[in-house]
Design goal:
Blueprint (H helix, E strand, L loop, with lengths): L1 H17 L1 H5 L5 H31 L7 H29 L5 H39 L3 H4 L27 H12 L7 E7 L6 H12 L5 E6 L6 H12 L10 H12 L3 E9 L3 H6 L8 E8 L2 H4 L7 E3 L5 H12 L10 H14 L3 H12 L5 H13 L7 H12 L3 H10 L8 E2 H10 L11 H14 L4 E5 L5 E5 L2 H13 L4 E3 L12 E4 L5 H4 L8 E4 L10 H6 L5 E3 L20 E3 L20 E7 L16 E7 L8 E2 L15 E6 L2 H7 L7 E7 L4 H9 L6 E6 L5 E2 L12 E5 L1 E2 L4 H9 L6 E5 L5 H7 L7 E5 L6 E4 L9 E5 L6 E4 L9 E7 L17 E7 L1 H8 L9 H5 L5 E6 L4 E5 L9 E2 L1
Parallel strand pairs: 1-4, 1-5, 2-3, 3-4, 9-10, 10-11, 11-12, 12-13, 13-14, 14-15, 15-17, 17-18, 18-19, 19-21, 20-22, 21-23, 23-24, 24-26, 25-27, 26-28, 28-29, 29-30
Antiparallel strand pairs: 6-8, 7-8, 15-16, 30-31, 31-32
Helix pairs in contact: 1-3, 1-4, 1-18, 3-5, 4-5, 7-8, 9-10, 13-14, 13-15, 14-16, 15-17, 18-21, 19-20, 24-25
């Protein structure tokens, strides 16, 4: 993947050359001009050389394992590219370092003459070694590459369907095991109160697939259910918290002691029937540690999946299943389903049958390998030449690790990616095992690292999201969650794929994971992912020229980072998200190349004025920290693109965050795309109107007298997509009748009282926003009449009313909210009746009522909501809860339960009575069970 490194470098060289005109556009001394011309000449020649080499490298990558000379050459080119990158990063910084008065600037320029000459000579030397490497390769080149010349992978169109292990088509060759497991779990529930089933086998053989299907089939039979993924480096404390959270046990998990948490789990499960899945258990001690938590007077079913035979011995009786690779028939069936997924009959053409059989033989019955290669082939033309080229790629790769078949497929899948996607994928592998990677975070990482290039008519964010979706479509990333619009919210790398990708990232010096268990030796990586609090070995490893440090351990001593920060002054990303730190090391502010500083969910209380040194900073993510203000010198960070800074609102659903005080001069940060969250004052609201590139804007502590300034500022934000306005208090009136919202707006949150007289005008302005899909209103004091006006917002997919509705009757007329998928009503003290006409809320998936004490009846017409999957009734009237939990008399039925029998999940909760239960679905609706 040296072409990925070279491709990234070519982009940097191009950016450096783009600054050539500007460099001579200012007054420069003669010697400096001469030195600059020489340096720019070297940069231009290096760029031309690498551009001509890039296509060769893409083809040569496939031969490095079969041709040792090619492998040595690629490794050398990668090292030289890294050296060039160091030169260019230093040059870019020094070129832009023009701060200070006239005398200071002139002094720097005179000093820069020596720097330009030194960098030019360094580039010249690197280019000389590059030419020498090319000549050596030519002298000692083997003929194998020439023999296979032209057999390159043709890039296919993006797959239209992401591969996952949750479809019915995935359950191939294990039907017998499925039925066996169902019988073990549901048979003799009263006779055998506790039973452990285990499924073990090699990675990627389909253990989780099988158990997932069984779990979904049987969980309705139990009062309580939980699915826990157990990572290799599990801790007893985190495991207990996961179990409590997944069972929905109502305790303060963050603050409760472990003994008390264990007791809460034990007491909660007493007298219940429950099922617990422990997925991907590495050692038997996991069960030994937790088994005493579970009561003996309950019906417990446990399913454990593992790669290790030792763990499988925990099974009760003959409850262990050894899942082996698929037999030939089932391999063929799965292959055809993947390779010809878009064909009605899903059959292999006769002319491809021989090649298909050879592919299947290569995969050795491993489902993940069969699925990956099948999906890859589904994007190729179904002709022998295309498939033959792919098979030749497989033949050229050697088998050398513990999972050779999947590694082989992964290599081909990676080589089918454009170089920019290769870099982005390897970056994902640096996240911990089973980590849910949030879309926005990974996109900002990619952008700050320079892995995303602008394309015509698209922003960097749009290109990055396209990359993310492409990786999902190619089955290299798995979808964990989608939002109310069906948009990817978070994803993960399958653990098997991640292990193989990490090997690739290590080989390519792209990045490595540090878990405290080993030293770093040999070639130094460009990125480090820290998963341990013990940084002793890392700090003594002599790492230099790092580009990124990602910390994934909450308890970390930043003093151990100091040596690494000192030796890696070209660092572009430092992400400390969730680390329990209150202050940054001073060395951070010497990182002239820093583009991403991640402080989200840390305990940082202040930032020093030295932050002005970070002139290349593009992302400052200090969301949910202890910051109350930002330093004055923030306004000097002209390249800042994302600025997130807010204080924690104490976990309140009504007011989740508070703004920070911004310095004057914020108007100069014209590159900002996101600014969240500003503490309002007249001066700041005047200035933010200059930030016309904003896509996200949040403002808090808004007073009535701010309305005109706020409206004027927002009117100038022509690209705004996400807007949140929070008043200084619940009774503060937001005068928004003059607010002209941009047509681009998609997400709007208003936390503050709205005047009844201005409500029609406000709602009317919202109805003109055809892109508006998300709306949250808090403290708005909306009655039946004003609520009826909201029904005209036909594009809404998400609506949340927090302490907003003050009427008694909430009425949804036929045809209202046709696209709404999520509706939540919080704190409606007078609400006693909800009416849903047939034809209303046709797309609603989730309906939530919280703190509505007068709501004594189910919404009238709820039986019409055929798309509804979740109904949550939290802190409603006792009468309603009692009716839903009431056991019907023999030969009678509960009419309320019949109305909601089509809903998969109904949760009722009444804290003052200690009730939190799940109503079972239509399979046995007459008997409610504890959740």
């Amino acid at each position: 993947m040296a072409e990925a490194v070279v491709g990234l470098l070519i982009g940097k060289l191009g950016a450096a050359l783009a600054a050539e005109a500007a460099a001579f556009g200012v007054s420069v001394v003669f010697k400096e001009a001469s030195a600059l011309r020489g340096l720019f000449g070297e940069i231009r020649e290096a760029k031309e050389e690498l551009e001509s080499m890039q296509a060769y490298l893409q083809g040569a990558e496939r031969f490095k394992d079969t041709d040792e000379t090619t492998g040595v050459f690629i490794k050398r080119i990668r090292g030289l590219a890294f050296e060039m990158e160091d030169v260019i990063d230093e040059f870019t910084y020094k070129l832009e370092d023009r701060h200070g008065g006239f005398a200071a600037k002139m002094k720097k320029r005179i000093k820069h003459v020596d720097i330009w000459c030194r960098l030019a000579l360094k580039l010249q030397g690197i280019r000389g070694r590059l030419r020498h490497a090319k000549q050596m390769k030519k002298d000692y080149m083997l003929t194998e590459m020439e023999r296979y010349n032209g057999a390159s992978l043709t890039h296919a169109k993006p797959a239209t369907q992401a591969f996952g292990f949750t479809r019915e088509d995935d359950l191939v060759g294990v039907e017998e095991n499925r039925e066996k497991m169902i019988q073990w779990l549901t048979g003799d529930l009263e006779e055998q109160r506790s039973r452990i089933s285990t499924v073990w086998g090699m990675p990627g053989v389909g253990k989780t697939t099988l158990v997932s299907h069984v779990y979904n089939a049987v969980k309705v039979e139990f009062d309580a259910t939980a699915w826990i993924t157990v990572s290799k480096s599990f801790s007893f404390e985190n495991l207990l918290k996961k179990i409590a959270r997944e069972f929905g046990i109502p305790v303060d998990i963050a603050n409760v002691e472990m003994r008390s948490l264990g007791k809460a789990i034990h007491n909660y499960l007493r007298g219940k029937s429950y099922i617990l899945i422990l997925d991907d258990v590495w050692i038997a001690d996991v069960w030994t540690e937790i088994r005493n938590l579970f009561p003996t007077d309950s019906i417990g079913r446990y399913v454990i999946t593992s790669r290790n035979h030792e763990v499988s011995l925990l099974a009760t009786g003959n409850g262990a299943i050894h899942l082996e690779p698929l037999q030939a028939h089932h391999s063929w069936l799965l292959f055809c389903r993947e390779a010809f997924w878009n064909d009605t009959v899903k059959e292999c053409p006769i002319e491809l049958r021989n090649l298909a059989e050879r592919f299947i033989k290569k995969c050795n019955g491993l489902p993940i390998a069969i699925a990956c290669i099948g999906r890859l082939l589904s994007r190729k033309h179904p002709i022998p030449t295309e498939w033959g080229n792919v098979y030749m790629e497989l033949e050229l790769h050697s088998v050398k690790n513990v999972m050779p078949d999947v590694d082989m497929v992964l290599k081909v899948s990676l080589e089918d990616l454009p170089y920019d996607l290769k870099n982005c994928f390897l970056h994902c592998a640096l996240f911990p095992e089973d980590y849910s990677i949030k879309r926005r975070r990974i996109m900002r990482h990619w952008i700050a690292a320079g892995l995303v290039k602008e394309k015509e008519n698209k922003t960097l964010e749009e290109v990055a999201e396209g990359y993310l979706n492409e990786l999902v479509n190619r089955s290299l990333l798995q979808v964990v969650e989608r939002n109310y619009m069906g948009r990817l919210k978070c994803c993960r790398v399958h653990d098997v794929i991640r292990l193989l990708a990490l090997n690739k990232a290590g080989e390519e010096c792209f990045g490595r994971v540090y878990d405290g268990s080993r030293t770093f030796s040999g070639e130094h990586p460009r990125r480090i992912s820290i998963h341990s609090e013990n940084l002793d070995q890392l700090s003594r490893s002599g790492l230099t020229h790092l580009r990124a440090i990602h910390v994934f351990n909450r308890y970390i001593n930043t003093d151990w980072l100091r040596p690494i920060l000192i030796s890696s002054n070209l660092l572009s990303t430092l992400d400390l998200q969730c680390a329990r730190i209150e202050m940054l090391p001073v060395e951070v502010f010497n990182l002239f190349n820093l583009r991403y500083l991640g402080l989200r969910n840390t305990d940082i209380k202040s930032l020093p004025e030295e932050i002005r040194r970070l002139q290349n900073l593009e992302v400052l993510d200090a969301y949910n920290t202890k910051l109350s203000y930002l330093p004055n010198n923030m306004v000097k960070l002209q390249k800042l693109r994302y600025l997130f800074a807010c204080t924690d609102g104490g976990g309140s659903e009504i007011k989740p965050f508070g703004g920070v005080k911004l310095p004057s001069g914020i108007h100069s940060l014209t590159s900002l795309h996101a600014l969240q969250c500003v503490k309002a004052n007249t001066e700041i609201l005047r200035e933010v109107g200059a930030l016309t590139e904003l896509r996200t804007f949040g403002v808090s502590d808004v007073k009535s007298e701010h309305s005109a300034y706020l409206s004027n500022a927002i009117t100038k934000m022509k690209h705004l997509i996400h807007l949140e306005i929070t008043s200084i208090g619940e009774e503060e009136v937001l005068h928004l009748e003059g607010l002209c919202l941009p047509p681009t707006l998609s997400k709007l949150g208003l936390e503050g009282q709205l005047e009844k007289a201005s409500m029609p005008q406000v709602v009317s302005s919202l109805s003109r926003l055809h892109n508006l899909t998300w709306l949250q209103l808090s403290f708005s004091k909306m009655d039946e009449e004003s609520f009826s006006r909201l029904l005209g917002l036909r594009g809404l997919c998400f609506l949340q009313l927090l302490n907003t509705f003050k009427g008694e009757n909430m009425h949804f007329s036929s045809g209202s909210f046709p696209k709404l998928r999520f509706l939540s009503v919080w704190t409606a003290p007078e609400l006693n009746q909800v009416e849903i006409e047939e034809g209303a809320l046709e797309s609603l998936v989730e309906l939530v009522f919280v703190d509505c004490p007068e709501l004594m009846f189910l919404p009238h017409g709820i039986e019409h909501l055929r798309a509804l999957e979740k109904l949550h009734l939290i802190e409603t009237s006792e009468e309603l809860i009692e009716k839903l939990l009431q056991e019907p008399e023999p030969n009678e039925c509960n009419e309320d339960l019949m109305k909601i029998r089509h809903i998969k999940e109904t949760i009722v909760q009444l804290s003052r009575e200690g009730i939190r239960e799940r109503i079972r679905s239509s399979q046995d609706i007459s008997a409610p069970r504890a959740w």
